[in-house]
Each structure stands twice: as C-alpha cells, then as structure tokens.
Specification:
Elements lengths: L30 E7 L4 E6 L14 E7 L4 H11 L3 H8 L10
Antiparallel strand pairs: 1-2, 1-3
Length: 104
Amino acid sequence: MAKLTKKRSKKIGLPPGALIHIGEGKAAVPRITIIDYDEIRFEEKEVRSVEECFPFRDKPTVTWINVDGVHQIEIIEKLGHCFGLHPLVMEDILNTDQRPKMEI
C-alpha cells in the first residue's frame, strides 16, 4: 500500500495572524489598482506604491483596492495597518489556496 504524503503548511507552529503567503500564483511585480466611486463619480487608477492608497481611508466614497501579487507581504501589512484590518483577515488574504469567502 502506497504511503500518502500530505503537504505541510509553512504556518505550523506560528501564532494565529502570522503573515505568510500560501499559494501558487505569484505576479512578477505586484500591481495595485484603486477603484473609488460614489453616486456621482467613478475613478479607476493604477498606483505605483501602497502609500498612494492611504488618502482614500478618510474619503466618504466607496474604495476598492485590488492587489495582484499578494505574495509580497509588506503590501498587505501596510494596507492592513492603514485601514485597520484584523490580523486574521490579513492572514486570510495571504492564503490564496482557500476558497473565496465573505464576512460581514
């Protein structure tokens, strides 16, 4: 009988909320796109640095920040600290092997 080998997680032994990228897909250079809108206007732009997202925190509009290349943990960490994301939410963002989910 063949022995089944199970893929071990890089997170074994680390505390909850430890920021480790889990998954396959890695963009060579991360790409950050901001979509900002309200009932009157719509703006979509690509930014060069994560710091360009920070001014959107205090705007009364709806802002969607899309990051292609979440393997660079520093980007998610900076966004999380700026926008007040819980460490477990940031951990879920970095785990690209799990199915998408929505939390209210």
